[in-house]
Write a structure and sequence with these properties.
313 residues, four-stranded mixed beta sheet, alpha/beta, globular, eleven-stranded mixed beta sheet, 10 helices, UDP-N-acetylmuramoyl-L-alanine:D-glutamate ligase, 2 domains
């Protein structure tokens, strides 16, 4: 069983419009709603790959109920979300319908999330520690809602390590900085998050610096250029065969799902990276986050290039 933690769950709403223009009214051509937040996206991809996943985090209000209703209809996903008095946030993606020769532009609007009380945070920690007794790996994903301590991920990493459960951290800013110091097994930042963490804009140097701060392995997402991994076993770059056009929202979450599934299946690092790049690329071609184009994924698995840099970091 895999556990994903999404402290700031959301209802993801995607509006498609022909063209987004400031100070104008827009006719929406289609609307989709899905459970959202990084860890829920990860869970849905893992379930589609055939893994059983438990999801936890906070949920509240009518929006939270809508998230839970959709989760319960997803085969392979178990709901262990903790109720709170505030309302789960919404995230709005405005996707422009563009000519086939152009990449669609996406504008993202993210609400802050409900205010979490000290009692609600304590209740979550109790649930989390109980879940750690029955899972093989845990992923800590996304932003923190108001009221959750900035060192929350560091505390959750330490709890997982004490329970002997490998932990992957996918966060940003100060929560990432503190979480890395608690020594997670894997950290998966994007290029911007990595530069903010280390002060370096050179990917290899920044990734190595992130390892020195405490992470056992660092897998940096380089957008359309794939992934860069620095681990105790070695360094690898994994790149897709070509750039694709589409909506990149959720591509990083699919990469996390690929890394987690490879870990629980005990695949070597190069095969984990191939799966992660293939999934993230196939997600760009899907209409919403938390989904991927399976036919494209299966084609890409045999075409992703992994280059070993040989020397262990």
């Amino acid at each position: 069983m895999i556990l994903t933690v999404t402290l700031n769950t959301a209802l993801d709403i995607t509006y498609r419009v022909r063209e987004l223009r400031p100070h104008a009214s827009h006719r929406v051509t289609s609307v989709t709603e899905r459970p959202g937040g990084k860890g829920l996206n990860v869970a849905r991809v893992l379930a589609a790959l055939g893994h059983e996943v438990t999801v936890t985090g906070f949920t509240g209000g009518p929006t939270g109920q809508a998230v839970q209703d959709q989760l319960t209809s997803t085969p392979g996903v178990l709901d262990a979300l903790v109720p709170v008095s505030g309302s789960t946030r919404r995230t709005i993606a405005l996707v422009e319908d563009t000519p086939a020769s152009m990449t669609p532009d996406t504008t993202q609007l993210n609400e802050p999330g409900p205010q979490i009380s000290p009692a609600e945070w304590s209740a979550f920690q109790d649930v989390y520690e109980g879940l750690l007794t029955s899972v093989s790996v845990v992923a800590l994903c996304g932003s923190l809602p108001p009221g959750v301590p900035v060192g929350a991920y560091a505390d959750l990493v330490r709890s997982a390590r004490a329970a002997g459960v490998p932990v992957l951290l996918d966060a940003s800013g100060e929560p990432l900085r503190r979480g890395v110091a608690a020594r997670p097994d894997v950290v998966k930042p994007n290029a911007g998050e990595l530069a903010e963490l280390t002060g370096s804009h050179e990917p290899l140097q920044a990734t190595r610096n992130a390892r020195r701060r405490g992470a056992r392995a660092v897998v940096a997402s380089l957008g359309p250029d794939g992934l860069l991994a620095v681990t105790p076993e070695g360094r690898w770059r994994a790149t897709p065969p070509a750039r694709v056009r589409g909506n990149p929202t959720g591509a990083g979450d699919s990469a996390v799902a690929g890394l987690l599934s490879g870990l629980v299946e005990q695949l070597p690092w190069p095969e984990r990276l191939i799966r992660a790049v293939a999934l993230s690329t196939a997600t760009v071609l899907a209409p919403v986050a938390g989904e991927f184009d399976r036919a494209v994924y299966e084609q890409l698995v045999g075409r992703v290039t992994v280059t070993s840099e040989a020397t262990a970091a």
